[in-house]
């Protein structure tokens, strides 16, 4: 099947899908997805509440998204980590949780699915995100994810399935996320850090060239979160000897 045929097939998938959502003004809306796909779902309110009750195994809560300065809900630590990773992604400019509910008929019965997140990218692309550890994706879930991916393709969105973040990346992001707020930015210290790390240096050695570590490290971690400075976050946990260097974002 050539590219045009694949696109036509994806549009056909999307044509039979309904979407229900709560818009930025708090108004409940619904209709064919092909009519509503241009809605700013990154501003939508959750279509359902985040249940919390005694004995619940998962932890619910809200994550503050530094990128858009908004709160998004999560129903597990895996979802919280996914929100954190999306917030860390420089291409993501806004994020909403439980943004809409999709409904469709599979020929025998009505089906429904509420994705976990909707992200808006810097280039305007919409991204639908489902979060579930790989070992919990059974046959039914895989079928729903595959259908959702085709529907997204039909309206020009991306689809991402995010599972457990691998250590030490998860550990490093959790640490850096503590310093994501703008209050950690001190312009004079940040300017000196950019100059010091213009060439790679060990994290602590470079920080101590700027000043007292207690004052400098929060700013350094904030610049790592903003990806104006960079380090290998995948192979090992951040430490005093982790090489850090200035990025092209930091040179702007």
Automatic annotation (TrEMBL):
The name this protein goes by in its record: TnsA-like heteromeric transposase endonuclease subunit
UniProt lineage: Bacteria, Bacillati, Actinomycetota, Actinomycetes, Kitasatosporales
Origin superkingdom: Bacteria
Record InterPro entries: TnsA-like
NCBIfam families in the record: TnsA_like_Actin (NF033179)
Keywords noted in UniProt: Endonuclease, Hydrolase, Nuclease
GO molecular function term, any single one: endonuclease activity
Organism of this sequence: Actinacidiphila oryziradicis
